[in-house]
Fold:
Amino acid sequence: MSKIADFIGKSARQNVVDALKRAKENEQYHALLNLTEERALERADAVDRGEITGRLAGVPFVVKDNFLAYGAPTTAASKILENFNAPLQATAVEKLEAEGAICIGKANLDAFAHGGSTENSAFGPSLNAYDKTRVAGGSSGGSAVVTALDIVPFALGSDTGGSIREPASFNGVVGIKPTYGTVSRYGVVAMASSTDVIGSFTTNVADGELVMDIIAGLDRKDMTTLPDFFKPIDTAKKGQKIGLIKEFMTDGVDDEVLARTNEYVEKLRAAGHTVEEVSLPIVAHTLAMYYIIVPAELSSNLARYDGIRYGHRAEGVKTLAELYGRSRDEGFVTENKRRIMIGSYVLSSGFFDAYYLQAQKARTLLINDLNKLFETYDVLMGPTVPTPAFKLGENTGDPIKMYLADIMTVPASLAGIPALSVPAGKSASGLPIGVQLMAPRRSDAQLFALARSMEEA
Amino acid sequence: MAETMTFADKYDITIGIECHVQLATATKLFSGADNDARDKAPNSVVSPIDFGLPGMLPVLNREAVNLAIKAGKALNSEIARVSRFDRKHYFYPDLPKGYQTTQMYNPIILGGFVDAPLEDGSMVHVRLHHAHMEEDAGKLTHYSDYSLVDLNRAGTPLIEIVSEPDIHSTVAAKAYATELYRLMTYAGVTLGDLYHGNMRFDVNVSIAPKGATELGTRAEVKNLNSFKSVERAAEYEFNRQAALLEKGERIVQETRGWDEAKQKTTSQRSKEDAQDYRYMPDADIPPIVLTEEEIIEIQSTLPNLPSFYREAWKPLGLDSTVINALLASKQLAQGIQAIYESAGESSARRNAQWFVSAVGPDDTESAVKAITYLPERFVELAAMVDTNELSSTAAKTIFSELLTGAKSARAVAEDKNLLQVSDDGAIAVIVDEVLADPASAQAVKDLKDGNDKVIGFLVGQVMKKSQGKANPELAQKLIRERVQ
Structure:
């Protein structure tokens, strides 16, 4: 099943040339913002000369364009970083390169990862791999699409509230969001420091486990990384207890999404696992928590884009205030500005306690409730997204409707627990549908083993 | 001047001081960049973290935490078992991330106090509210139509020590600032280079009519970098605010700057312009969690503080001005203490006085080197006075030589022919000469008649004739033997 295996032991140059060719043939999907062609070919030759070896020697991959990486600008799909060339690489990219993997391009995203469709990219949206009239999902939409189109066998993404899982679900691939702190965030343009995680897109779970095995680990450059704990395990625990979150299985959810999820439940049961309905009422409040905490953090993390040291600087300004105002106005997209406004508001003096602190308290309640369920259940599950991929432009005028697509993915982000989205079939019209599996912190290996065993079932 | 007297009779001053102390770490608070920005080319000690590059994350410098823990001990404070970092947001070109990483909600140093000695030997007791860790910003240099940014100092670790408004005179304000400096340098927390802003004081001054129970509106004078300017700025504010109140005007709560050249404060911004810093916890930095054992271990390495020396030197009976002058330099205090421990009270007392009178406040470097590297020479010098080999006048001459040269005290004494003659025979010859001198006849007669005062004159003549080398006690004894 492994697609990565297909590239190993082959001519690295051929692998890269072919991948670049596929990328160019699929330009209409706008999944990639820039190719790193020159550097990729150089590295491929180095692999072929035996100068670079490793578990991923000669395997092409793509990174979301919020990872600092050589060979092309790191834009975060924004005008403010349009011409920003990274002087160093993200730890995750470095680790993959150390194993011989070759980055061939930078994937499209919602600018600064703000969004769930890539429609917020300053350079235009990516198109769904199964229906070009529909969204790729987001924010890591480009990474999902290049994986679904088999341009590369894996791609890196970042997930703050669902940014890996949602596009994985929309494009029928496996999207892994590990436990918070599993993979170093060093060198990845920050969105929300307390929920940002680095993860992968693959066509199968085993490839995702391999990538995770390589990129996971303590990094002294990121104080929030956990001591090394992730090690893939061969076989999943037998007879697991799985909770199906009933608040995610309501009438508001698309019928076909419910049907595919129920089919997956039956598959789990057939494999000897127990699946029971569980209630997690607090999920009704998780979007409210998320859209306070995350804008607060991102408003802070985006403060450095001021036009002073790097990035876009407005022309013809007369005062410092004008320089800041115009550079940021021209450099950020509407959704960036909306979230910066919300974040700045909830952090203002007099509102901090009522919004930010209150949201953090509610977040603790969510974590407590999840921990309570995990005393009984090995895994919690539900659909990844309430619907299959929606039409381009369908939600762009209604931010709240757009945010609602995150309702099922946000809890795992706020709780820092591992979650993955796996393909669970398609709608009648051929759109992929994913289910989400979640587990306690640091039980990523068990969770992935279960998901892998179900692929084989 | 008369007006000042009137104000002082009518108004009380209340002062609280915030002091930024630059920590003496090798690297910055959150990066591996060199922490010593002095005399470096602009933007030459800046890491991608200090530069605020996308994707960069802070890595807390544990040495900075350890120094804060030591500072806490020196400040008689409690160390928080859990402390956290927060972000303080504002836009300015010297602030690369758009926020300063500081400790707003859970600072590492809680409470505490400083007892600062005044010139008259009494102490002013100043309670501390807290002290927190934070990073410094960079520096802007303004030109006619542009400004240049230097980020060398961005990310430098600081602790900000916040006092309670416990200071009620400008002299006490200076004494507090001075004692803070001593505490922080003695504890090894800072290099204490005031010229390069290693310690900077923000002085909050308010005044109220004598006997009033409520404090007046305060003005904050920012960025003072000398003890004297702390005192002068507080004095200026007292007079400025008193003059306003006398005219029936209100004091505006504001931030003011200190003009060193004009010796006055000037308004910078009022409270109405105060920014909303949108403080929030910094999720990139896990809390600092400390155990009792760690705190004790780190604090056990704390060098002696000024209070130790004050206590230890009590038997020496030194003047408080001498003690304060010695304590102005940690190494000098250490040197005197080393002499005290190795050579005893008399040696320590003599050297304490020599050092204080010979060394000016701005010129301790040679003295510090001399006492640190060759202390035995000063012990020898004191011993030679104790055993009457040297007069105290000769000893002072030799002391100055010891500060700049490398010879032993005895070698200098011999070179300069300053050794006292304590040989009975040699002195007796001189005494006989003096007594035989007609110029001494009257004195000899007076002494015989019982006028004992004149013996001083005769001894003086002996000293003069011996070029100061005769032991005066011996000379006196020999004179008495002969004139009876």
Q: What stands out?
A: Residues 32 and 414 of chain B are 55 Å apart (CA to CA). Chain B has 18 helices and 17 strands. The two ends of chain B are 63 Å apart (CA to CA).
